[in-house]
Amino acid sequence: MIESASSSSNFLRDLIETDLAAGRYDRVVTRFPPEPNGYLHIGHAKAICANFGLAAQFGGVCTLRMDDTNPTKEDIEYVESIQDDIRWLGFDWGEHFFHAADYFEQLYRYARELISKDLAYVCSQTNEEMRRDRGTVIEAGTASPDRDRPTAESLDLFARMRAGEFADGELTLRAKIDMAASNMKLRDPPMYRIRHATHHRTGDDWPIYPIYDFAHGLSDSVEGITHSFCTLEFQNNRALYDWYIENTSTLRPRPYQYEFARLVLSWTLTSKRKLLQLVTEDHVQGWDDPRMPTISGLRRRGVPPAAIRNFCDRIGVSKTNSIIEMEVFEEEIRAELNRTAPRRMVVRDPVRLVLVDWPEGTVDPLELANHPSADLGTRTVPLAGQVFVERSDFSDDPPKGWKRLSVGVEVRLRGAYLVTVNEVLRDEDGRILELHATHDHASRGGDAPDGRKVRGTIHWVPTEPSVTMNLRMVDRLFAVANPGEGDADFLDELNPASMPITEAVGEGALRDAAPGDAFQFERIGYFAVDADSTAEALVFNRAVSLRDTWAKASTAPTKGKSKARSAPVVAAATPSAEELAALAAWTEVGVSVETARMLKADAALDTLAWDAVLAGAEAKDAANLVGNELVRALDGRGTDALPFGGDAIASLASLSADGTLNQRGLRAVLAELVMSGGAPGEIVERLSLVQLSSDALTPVITAVLADHPEEAARLAGGETKLIGFLLGQVMRRTGGKADPKAARALLMQSVAGTRPSTAGKAGP
Ligand code: ATP
Ligand code: MG
Fold this sequence. Notes:
35% of the residues lie in helices and 16% in strands. It is of the alpha/beta class.
């Protein structure tokens, strides 16, 4: 199982750490609960990385639960695609694969328990009547005439609902909570509806189906979930989640629900309903169309799973909604492919270049490196005197500074020879048919023996062997940054040129590429072999361009940009000279451009940081504390009435510099400062946040290793993922006051001492 690099801010991680430190749970159990009514998309990837990633990081378990309580929209095709996609992303639920439908019997018993306790009743009101009687935010609701139905009668009716004696909608089981509750979710919400429908798993066994709010928390409880993460829309449902768990005889310790901001990515959509519409109305070629933001679409397009995981890690997890710019995702795709994709040469608009002085009948089997820095081996590109080059790489009338082909100009054929075009053959219309060139046979590999300078390098493909192929130039699916915003119909905003197809000719070695293999086609982009590609008809999808081509095109700012401070990844553009000048006051004293930007974006922060410098803090520390840590602690709150000043920041900086506080302690103090002001020194005392010295840490480490000999041995044997578990134990025993870095180092050092020596294993 893969652990995420966990470099960015993630309040869920902090929360688990706190719970483990406080001894609330022995181990972390999270779950990913998709409803099998569509394919997973990039938004789900965020939830998957959070749930599976955090469980792995803390040595726990993440279950995969099909949230299949709604029989009419669910399908086995979706169940299978969901499993494929999660595995492909690099996560594993082990034996913990479940269905909410597996709990129908148990949920039914919980429902009976609630009726018996007079906390639920069978109601004969229609949907319409229930809605009418619900009241409003400012007016209490009106009780159903059935609210006081005797328990025995409700039990009997509920049993008959289950037996199928009533028609759809005739009766409903409702929780009996509070018709005047300010949280409308608590106004006697429905628990079960009658629905004579066939379920993909339980068939016709059940004519009644549980409602999400009733089923979800109780299913969490059945699975022994400790942390139930969902998106912010469910904030109001939390009260109901708690109510069902508190009022039934469920397992302890109980799970709790926490909400995080859903991923919204510019230039695309993360609504299953809208994605389904794109598929059913044939706006795309299927759920895995390479333009789709689905996991299967991204896979088909050639996006590596690591790029998605790195992206999720980079954006972190917070409680503030914001829009993440598509560029950020594309940067991660590019970074991963740049690292891992072998290079190949492909020519899109070929023109034949003939080396007129090539030794007749000879073939030079040139060995070209597959990657400029990674160790990806070489491939043979045979050169027999004729190659294809890009038509656009030749100019009759070159502009100043032209470094490519032109008559009389020496140019390097990548990894091959230096060549000079001497003659241009054309048809009657003046269109170039062939370029005739001479070459320097001593420049094999691309460098002249006398060291003379040749500035231009172009890519090429031998005319033999070569392959023709179709390149799908996959681009953004929508032509606007926020499709469907306002009154717009997202279908009107599709990019009409989202996937133009170009013919191209490539190196012969490409014929053997298998579906999914990704390459950098030099100077063109990153491409992957499409699922439908065959040796006879090669099809490649562009996974991502070499550079961001939309940056200039998109002048209209996307909404949510103003939230840039709580999601620093949003501002990724390179600064202009003008901006650099404005940031100079900070950058000149060693502060990074990113941090300086955060400060300049808000005058109050800028002043606060300077005040801290005046109060004695190092400029870099002050800038970092205010521009990064404080912004994080504010989590979207305003800066106009902060209950502390620059002196507090300066004092915090010195507590951190002298080792009194670790990162965690520092964040705890900042959180306290933001809430109620005060003096950092005094807060550290009051909350006893002083970080343990290494000396004090050693006995704790020894004790943890002694209590977990098996884990210690596995770590010593190289299972590095166990460090998370052991570190968790250390943090827990020290009440979070260990310096995680020091603890990690000490742990590694201690187990290294116990590692069995290879000499001892050498045999009898
Ligand atoms: P629908 O759009 O049909 O309501 P959904 O997007 O919530 O469905 P589910 O299958 O219920 O889809 O989602 C499974 C899990 O993925 C849920 O826990 C949900 O919170 C999470 N999730 C869904 N969309 C996003 C998103 N854009 N960002 C982060 N998490 C998401
Ligand atoms: Mg949902």
